[in-house]
Amino acid sequence: MNYFLFIIKSAAFDFSRNKGRTFLTSLGILIGVLSVVLLTAFGLGLKKYIADQFESLGTNLLRVLPGQPLRSGGFSGGPSSFGTIHFEEKDVVKLSRLRSLEVVVPVYYKSMDVVAGKNTEFATVYMTNSDVFKAINLNTEYGAPFTKQDVEKRSKVVVIGPKIAENLFADQKAAVDRSLKIEGQTFKVLGVLGAKGGGFGGPDLDSFIYMPYKTGYIFNTDKQFIILILKVKSDQSIETAKTEANDILLKRFKKDDFSIVEQGEILSAINSIFAVLNTVLIAIAAISLVVGGIGIMNIMYVTVTERIKEIGIRRALGARKKDILYQFLVESVILSLLGGLMGLLLAALIILFVQRFFPAYIDLQSIMLALGVSSAIGVIFGVFPAKKAADLAPIEAIRYE
Question: Where is the MacB-like periplasmic core domain (predicted)?
Answer without folding.
Answer: 22-246
